[in-house]
């Protein structure tokens, strides 16, 4: 063994040790991030984000129900997700056309709720009833599985605020209308492209 070999071996051992430290740090960071994510992922999101959903067994729901985590969003082009794929085709096409135009103007455009299963809608309504104390009050914010336009694939909730503002100005060019006065994020295909949107209902219970 030459001196050169020994030096090189020491050097590579030092590199190995440094790499190990880096890996440990990455692992630690990922662990913390996953932990934080798990904390933030508790509960389900509805139009009104009822806090009573916290503690619900969200594992019973998945992407097949159109479930999108509270505070999370998906791309309007995520056709691989049932939340997008099971939207009524006309609405989905209009929403994607509008999203392309908005994004071209540097507007962030995401979907916070799309199609939902009836079972998922029922969980949202039950949680809202627990939150607001009565079905009458809850229904101002969350529709029943029988009446929800999300369950039929005829409604999408759009974020962020800039996209809501953009849609309030340009949505009707694509036939997209805000249908409830108390939900500036909730859009339905409610007119012909370039047509006039119908008068807004005060809230979901008014429909
Ligand atoms: Zn909605």
From TrEMBL:
<keyword id="KW-0378">Hydrolase</keyword>
<protein>
    <submittedName>
        <fullName>D-alanyl-D-alanine carboxypeptidase</fullName>
        <ecNumber>3.4.17.14</ecNumber>
    </submittedName>
</protein>
<dbReference type="Pfam" id="PF02557">
    <property type="entry name" value="VanY"/>
</dbReference>
<dbReference type="InterPro" id="IPR052179">
    <property type="entry name" value="DD-CPase-like"/>
</dbReference>
<dbReference type="InterPro" id="IPR009045">
    <property type="entry name" value="Zn_M74/Hedgehog-like"/>
</dbReference>
<keyword id="KW-0645">Protease</keyword>
<dbReference type="GO" id="GO:0009046">
    <property type="term" value="F:zinc D-Ala-D-Ala carboxypeptidase activity"/>
</dbReference>
<keyword id="KW-0121">Carboxypeptidase</keyword>
<feature type="domain" description="D-alanyl-D-alanine carboxypeptidase-like core">
    <location>
        <begin position="87"/>
        <end position="187"/>
    </location>
</feature>
<dbReference type="InterPro" id="IPR003709">
    <property type="entry name" value="VanY-like_core_dom"/>
</dbReference>
């Amino acid at each position: 063994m030459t001196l050169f070999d020994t030096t090189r071996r020491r050097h590579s051992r030092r590199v190995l040790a440094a790499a190990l430290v880096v890996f440990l740090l990455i692992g630690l960071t990922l662990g913390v991030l996953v932990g934080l994510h798990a904390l933030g992922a508790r509960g389900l999101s509805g139009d009104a984000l009822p806090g009573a959903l916290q503690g619900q067994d969200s594992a019973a729901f998945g992407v097949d129900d159109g479930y999108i985590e509270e505070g999370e969003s998906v791309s309007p082009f995520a056709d691989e997700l049932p939340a997008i794929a099971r939207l009524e085709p006309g609405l989905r096409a209009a929403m994607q056309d509008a999203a392309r135009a908005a994004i071209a103007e540097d507007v962030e455009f995401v979907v916070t709720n799309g199609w939902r299963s009836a079972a998922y809608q029922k969980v949202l309504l039950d949680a809202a009833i627990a939150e607001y104390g009565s079905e009458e009050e809850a229904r101002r914010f969350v529709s029943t599985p029988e009446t929800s336009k999300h369950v039929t694939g005829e409604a999408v909730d759009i974020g962020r605020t800039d996209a809501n503002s953009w849609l309030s100005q340009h949505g009707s060019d694509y036939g997209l209308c805000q249908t409830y006065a108390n939900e500036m994020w909730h859009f339905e295909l409610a007119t012909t492209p370039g047509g006039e949107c119908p008068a807004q209902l005060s809230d979901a219970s008014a429909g």
